[in-house]
Q: What sequence folds into this?
């Protein structure tokens, strides 16, 4: 079982102080958070890709490369990489380069991006979102697996006997997760390739994602990659922790009430009841996270959103200490002991490399 | 058994919009005595509808109402006229429904207002809304102005005609077709949809 954090990289005014970090401060804070994640024993750090304010992470491989140089164990990933508006040739090259520099500690999550205005900035059209995701990923998949690729498609110029460089480290392409909020096409795509499927999960009730994950599992089996319960599932989660529950609720409430994504809507209590958000003690986080397995089956990766809505860096780092010390070890033990032997771990560079050499 | 969801967007209690909704339900039931009727008062869900707008998902109470409307064989939808159209609450409820929830569903539409001047709202506002949602509004829609409540004879005639048309549609079609799941196998996606 892998545990980690995923950040969206928003620059948001702290509602308790009225102050917002500069872009420089926020970018450096994200790096600090990633280093802390490794320090407290998490397995994964994932950063978003955004091209519009108030978000800063427009260049994930630059950031992840910088983090790779300062870490040695943590897997570096994305949440998400836009398969619609990025050229698949550039993705193939950027992430293969990162993979070499990070000694294989790289995987990535594909997403479509859901804001219309972003598409034309990169020469694309949101109405083609799904066809772009399908065609671009298919090309990317080939570029990482075939040394010489001739290809033609609808959305970019043809390739003639093209070799993307560097080749993936050890001949092992980075493992890919497909993130989706509501598109069955993407669950189907993940199943077709036998890739991972990541359900963001955090802002909606579980029923919303159960349908997608069940579809993915069923189709994973249909395409012959294994049994439905062996499919590779990742889930998002969102927590705010303090040793005492009341302190967590009191401290997080102003951030919740003013958060860009759900502020001024339901109460903290209602939202906690209806979505995976947990605000409370480490034990409450453990209890709630264990229910995810009951709802979605045994899964391989759990990412938490910890640093958004204007929370100060100091608070985020304290959160990571609590998570690493009091939550993850218990969850890891519990979930590993509950998982049947035939359900695999999430693939890593090492496990994929051993499959290639066998 | 035929199920009919009644969505009423009246704000006062008692509400003339609710009164018209009940009248339309009653005239439908006089033709289909076994029909099961479930009334959804949007007033009770006003805050929940707004929260859904902000978060993208419904609370359990709103979920239950949405499920009733989605599963019903037919829909009676009645709104007060506000500023030349249906009320914002009425529109918001249909905004948070799944786009396919009303596919092929017979709908009896009604509206209430202070004067007869607004009666065309049925045809220039409500009918296009349900056409967009691929629902099937019946030919007769019913508008009730304040004066209609003073001398209800004519209103009763219109309501019973609308009820008969609606009931005929419900009994001829049985249950509404299941919405299209939109699932496309991957080979087809890869070939360009």
A:
């Amino acid at each position: 079982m892998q545990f980690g954090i995923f950040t969206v990289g928003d620059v948001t005014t702290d509602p308790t102080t009225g102050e917002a970090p500069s872009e420089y401060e926020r970018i450096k804070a994200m790096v600090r958070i990633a280093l802390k994640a490794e320090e407290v024993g998490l397995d994964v750090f994932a950063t978003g890709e955004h091209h519009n304010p108030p978000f800063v992470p427009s260049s994930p491989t630059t950031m992840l490369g910088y983090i790779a140089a300062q870490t040695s164990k943590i897997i570096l990933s994305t949440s998400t990489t836009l398969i619609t508006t990025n050229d698949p040739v550039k993705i193939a090259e950027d992430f293969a380069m990162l993979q070499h520099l990070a000694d294989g500690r790289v995987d990535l999550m594909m997403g479509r991006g859901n804001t219309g205005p972003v598409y034309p900035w990169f020469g694309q059209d949101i109405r083609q979102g799904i066809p772009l995701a399908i065609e671009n990923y298919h090309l990317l998949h080939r570029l990482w697996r075939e040394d010489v690729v001739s290809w033609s498609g609808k959305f970019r110029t043809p390739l003639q006997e093209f070799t993307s460089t560097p080749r993936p480290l050890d001949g092992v392409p980075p493992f890919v997760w497909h993130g989706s909020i509501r598109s069955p096409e993407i669950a189907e795509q993940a199943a077709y390739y036998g890739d991972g499927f990541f359900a963001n999960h955090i802002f909606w009730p579980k029923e919303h994602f159960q349908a997608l994950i069940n579809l993915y599992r069923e189709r994973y089996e249909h395409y012959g990659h294994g049994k439905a319960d062996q499919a590779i599932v990742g889930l998002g989660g969102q927590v705010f922790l303090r040793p005492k529950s009341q302190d967590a609720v009191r401290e997080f409430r102003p951030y919740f009430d003013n958060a860009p994504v759900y502020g001024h809507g339901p109460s903290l209590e209602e939202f906690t009841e209806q979505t995976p958000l947990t605000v409370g003690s480490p034990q409450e986080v453990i209890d709630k996270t264990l229910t995810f397995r009951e709802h979605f089956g045994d899964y391989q990766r759990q990412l938490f959103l910890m640093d958004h809505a204007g929370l100060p860096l100091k608070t985020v780092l304290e959160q990571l200490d609590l998570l690493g010390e009091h939550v993850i070890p218990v969850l890891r033990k519990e979930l590993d002991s509950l998982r049947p032997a035939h359900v695999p771990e999430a693939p890593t560079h090492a496990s994929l490399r051993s499959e290639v050499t066998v | 058994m035929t199920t009919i969801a009644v969505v009423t967007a009246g704000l006062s209690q008692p509400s003339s919009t609710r009164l018209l909704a009940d009248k339309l339900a009653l005239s439908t039931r006089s033709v289909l005595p076994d029909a099961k009727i479930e009334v959804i008062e949007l007033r009770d869900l006003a805050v929940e509808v707004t929260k859904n707008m902000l978060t993208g998902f419904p609370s359990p109470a709103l979920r239950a109402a949405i499920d009733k409307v989605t599963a019903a064989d037919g829909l009676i939808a009645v709104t007060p006229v506000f500023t030349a159209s249906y009320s914002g609450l009425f529109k918001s409820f249909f905004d948070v429904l799944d786009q396919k929830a009303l596919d092929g569903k017979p709908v009896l539409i009604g509206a209430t207002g202070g004067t007869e001047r607004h009666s065309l709202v049925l045809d220039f506002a409500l009918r296009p809304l349900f056409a967009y949602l691929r629902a099937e509004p019946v030919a007769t829609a019913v508008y009730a102005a304040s004066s209609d409540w003073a001398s209800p004879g004519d209103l009763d005639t219109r309501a019973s005609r609308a009820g008969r048309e609606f009931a005929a549609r419900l009994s001829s079609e049985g249950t509404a077709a299941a919405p299209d799941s939109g699932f496309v196998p991957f080979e087809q996606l890869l070939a360009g949809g």
Summary: Chain A has a mean pLDDT of 95. The two ends of chain A are 23 Å apart (CA to CA). Chain A has one domain: 2-357.
